[in-house]
Amino acid sequence: MRILILGGDGYLGWPTAMHLSQRGHEVAVVDNMARRGYDNELGAESLVPIASLQERVAIWEAITGHRIQSFFGDICDYTFFEPVVKNFRPEAIVHYGEQRAAPYSMIDRRHAVYTQVNNVVGNLNVLYAMADHVPDCHLVKLGTMGEYGTPNIDIEEGYITITHKGRTDTLPYPKQPGSFYHLSKVHDSHNIMFCCRIWGLRATDLNQGVVYGVDTDEIKLDERLRTRFDYDGVFGTVLNRFLVQAVAGIPLTVYGKGGQTRGFLDIRDTLACVDLAIQNPAAAGEFRVFNQFTEQFSVLDLAKAVQEAGRELGMNVELNHMPNPRVEKEDHYYNAANTRLLDLGLQPHYLSETLLESVIGVVQQHRGNIKQHLIMPSVNWRETGSTAVQEEAAPAAD
Ligand code: NAD
Ligand code: USQ
Prior knowledge:
By secondary structure, the chain is α/β, with parallel strands linked by helices. The protein has a single domain, classed as NAD(P)-binding Rossmann-like Domain (Rossmann fold, 3-Layer(aba) Sandwich), CATH 3.40.50. It is about 35% helix and about 20% strand. Strands 3-2-1-4-5-8-12 form a seven-stranded parallel β-sheet, with helices on both faces. The longest helix is centred in the first third of the chain and has 25 residues. The radius of gyration is 20 Å and the shape is globular. About 0% of the residues have low confidence. It binds nicotinamide-adenine-dinucleotide (NAD) and sulfoquinovose-uridine-C1,5'-diphosphate. Sulfoquinovose-uridine-C1,5'-diphosphate binds next to α8, β10 and β11. The site of sulfoquinovose-uridine-C1,5'-diphosphate has 21 residues, from α8, β10 and β11.
């Protein structure tokens, strides 16, 4: 198949490009390097050094003989993006190309506006380009489990059947997102659903949990194919952060009580889920939602797992229950369905079977790159941030 990957220079986009290319698909990636720009802005960088996209595709071709085309540009710029779709004529588009950090979206007004414009406008451009040029193409869109929030009832996969005053309907599951970033994903979902209804597009919204891990089969072929690994207080996700903190000898930054429970998955399962969605496309006019995670953990569960893995390596890992910089429930019911990808054949890699020690090994290899001042959270949900960050430093959205 011809598969276009948006955000193909990112943590998940690059490994996905290699994974699909290795399986014989004709793969092209689009990226505007925004993510590398956020690093410059924040003074942060991936713990694991990463090659440029040009170097990566050249190394990939030299090793495997497979070509990955790359297009450098902004999907919000339709004069750039429309010809890419028109000429490449993808049969599937995997859309990772958004600003994905909740804390980044909560820095201040400017970052909130940037996040929502970048994500919502980019996604709208994708929908228009599909409708005009490849109406049969299948959109595989990365959403987030955070769209649902933490309701006091079970979370279903996208829809819930409700009986109200004697009448019954199956309706979109209620959304209670916890940041302007997570809200942007809700807006995307609504726009995609609408376009499936009016234009008959086919789409799968993958409501993904928090991803962890560094290795995929393709990355293991060559060190120079490594994907980014973020640990800073803005872009680092919780388990990846805890592993770096353990190696750096910093007590693990458990926000509040640590009872916040989320869905998690190994990066290898992200690739498998996207692959399964592509192989089993949505029908014309169908807007499907799959909850893409394999296990649920509380933040405290994860901290204890890292503590245990550290102990086996002779490290003394401590926990630091610090004031929560976010506004979120710290003690709540959480039970989310995730059977649709399993029904398609997903074979999960569970955390208990994953050698956390092996991820720690990669972190130890690069421990010299850890910048301690980036570890503590710097963004507080309760503040509008108007004085926290120089406005000029932010990417301009308006
Ligand atoms: P990432 O930031 O590493 O990658 C996103 C890529 O998209 C970056 O390379 C960035 O430069 C590019 N991009 C952003 N805006 C763009 C634009 N307007 N035009 C072109 N390229 C653009 O993020 P990631 O961790 O790989 O996540 C990928 C997707 O998966 C995101 O949409 C994210 O919301 C979703 N997701 C990620 C996780 C996770 O734990 N990493 C969990 C759930 C969902
Ligand atoms: N947390 C800590 N300590 C830390 C970092 C985080 O306790 O040092 C807590 C947070 O308060 C939160 C939980 O861990 O309760 C998860 O935080 P996170 O930063 O790992 O994940 P989140 O902000 O939700 O965002 C990440 C990705 C995002 C994706 C989302 C999936 O950055 O792109 O959409 O995971 S989900 O969480 O299911 O919405």
